[in-house]
Write a structure and sequence with these properties.
The protein is built from 19 helices and 2 strands. Strands 1-2 form a two-stranded antiparallel sheet. The longest helix has about 35 residues, at about 245-280. The chain folds into 3 domains: about 5-140 and about 205-230, no CATH class; about 245-410, no CATH class; about 420-505, no CATH class. With about 500 residues, the chain is mainly α.
């Protein structure tokens, strides 16, 4: 059973869609924080791209089942780009903003990579890096290529390319002398200087800024939409193939890592199980100081070892015997990294038990969870000779990790953890908690009564002062806000009070 696939669309629909994206971007993307406005803009981009993609499948050329799977994969990737941006409009936590934004960019880069004719099953670590390069090149040079596609005849296309190249060269050559002569003449005559100043004013007016912003976004969108909607788009980014090294070359570094980790884990066993007196006597540190000093380094080192193992798998030649031996070495490294992560967990437990949970510590734990997930993917792929499955599975794990971070609400976890510590009689850092995001404020509004009355009253005052300053510094533009920050504003407008025990008792 075959469906149909239409020939690549002409330039006009693509131009109109790109122009719509440009206008929407100018209207929806604020100059400050990219929150709700950016998320809504990405939804517009996805809708237009999927609509153009659907138009492409309206059929004059036979489409095989393989083509149908490719089309569905592309559609899901486009939709995933908009879904990744949705977290910006949902959560207010600063720690999540770069993660959600980077996820959006990565999904968009995968769309352009898929547009070169690649399939999701062909994704590798090296192809992931190549996808990022293709994304950058597509945004920078895709617009002229899209316009070139619109020429209906080869002669017309050649003439179009010739003129476009001539204009581009002319612009580049004209800018230096024009700028230099204009500057010199401005210094020589006051009236001419006034004309230049007026021209500069016109170029910096609101209308000109909107026009330039729309044109810039349209340029970027035109190349991306071309890759997102056409069946197979050529790219100048070259393929990078494995050098096919012998196991002897690859294993030197891996065996060195095995020995180094074994030595380190021996010292960890002495430190972690020797207790606080052992730490103080041997290295002069309390358990909390020891945990703070080593946790982040352990997590980063674990990630480096996993990345090295993945790269070694790519470098290794395709020999069954050598692959089997590589799997044994890789399995040993995986076990050692797992033990290293357990050491990091033990350190963080000591640290949180002493000082409580913060955003940085939560993010460190989240990174450790991602490294552990990567370790599980490595264990189920590389040692078993299933290297081709690593990158697709790792992509799925990363997507799930980003989604889970948004769902669990780090701010709420931080607040509830530290409220429980306060109930147990431990210190509660009022200034720190007062400066948390709107995600955390939602928990305080309902659970602040768990704090002792004086602490709760101090927190209520500090929160009021923080949100007074934040409201004053904010433009109030809904495009730069999230759902959580909007709710925080409503709380502030309603009086900015918390349900402290003293207040409840007074009623």
């Amino acid at each position: 059973m075959q469906s149909t696939l239409q020939l690549p669309s002409r330039t006009t629909p693509l131009l109109l869609a790109a122009l719509g994206v440009g206008i929407a971007g100018d209207l929806l993307i604020p100059s400050e924080l990219w929150r709700a406005g950016f998320s809504l803009w990405m939804a517009v981009v996805a809708i237009l791209a999927i609509g153009l993609r659907a138009r492409t499948t309206g059929a004059s050329v036979a489409m095989t089942a393989e083509d149908g799977r490719t089309h569905r994969e592309r559609t899901w990737l486009i939709a995933g780009t908009a879904i990744a941006a949705a977290g910006l409009a949902w959560r207010d936590a600063e720690i999540l903003m770069p993660i959600d934004l980077l996820s959006t960019l990565c999904m968009g880069a995968l769309v352009t990579w898929h547009g070169t004719g690649r399939r999701f099953g062909e994704l590798t670590v090296v192809q992931s890096v190549r996808a990022a390069a293709i994304g950058v090149v597509t945004l920078a040079t895709g617009a002229p290529a899209a316009l070139r596609d619109g020429a209906e005849h080869s002669a017309t296309r050649a003439e179009f390319v010739r003129r476009l190249r001539a204009i581009a060269i002319g612009i580049v050559l004209a800018i230096p002398p024009l700028a230099l002569v204009a500057g010199l003449l401005s210094e020589s005559d006051q009236r001419f200087e006034a004309y230049i100043v007026e021209l500069h004013r016109l170029l910096t007016t609101t209308a000109a800024q909107h026009l330039l912003t729309t044109a810039f976004i349209t340029w970027l969108a035109l190349g991306w939409l071309r890759s997102a909607t056409q069946h197979r788009v050529p790219t100048i980014v070259p393929e990078v193939r494995s050098p096919g090294l012998a196991l002897l070359s690859v294993s030197v570094g891996l065996i060195g890592l095995v020995a180094l980790l074994a030595l380190y884990l021996t010292t960890q066993a002495q430190a972690l199980f020797g207790g606080g007196d052992h730490l103080l006597a041997t290295v002069g540190l309390t358990p909390a100081e020891y945990a703070r000093r080593g946790f982040f380094e352990i997590v980063v080192a674990s990630g480096v070892v996993v990345a090295t193992l993945v790269m070694a798998d790519w470098l290794l030649r395709d020999d069954e015997t050598e692959r089997r031996r590589f799997g044994i070495i890789g399995g040993v490294l995986v076990v050692e990294v797992a033990a290293l992560l357990l050491s990091a967990v033990a350190r963080m437990r000591l640290y949180i038990g002493e000082f409580g949970l913060t955003g940085d510590r939560f993010f460190a734990i989240a990174i450790m969870a991602l490294v552990a997930a990567a370790l599980a993917v490595v264990l189920t792929t590389l040692p078993r000779g299933q290297s081709a499955r690593f990158a697709p599975r790792m992509l799925g794990v990363t997507i799930g990790w980003v989604a889970l971070l948004n769902v669990v609400n780090p701010g709420a976890i931080i607040v509830r953890t530290n409220l429980a510590r306060a109930e147990a009689g431990k210190a509660f850092d009022v200034p720190y908690h007062a400066n948390l995001s709107g995600d955390a404020l939602a928990v305080f509004i309902t659970e602040a009564g768990r704090l002792p009355a004086p602490t709760c009253a101090a927190l209520s005052t500090a929160l009021g002062a923080h949100w007074t300053q934040r409201v004053a510094e904010s433009s109030g533009d809904w495009r730069s806000e999230s759902l959580s920050s909007r709710r925080a504003r409503e709380w502030y407008a309603a009086g900015a009070t918390l349900p402290c025990r003293a207040a409840v008792g007074a009623q």
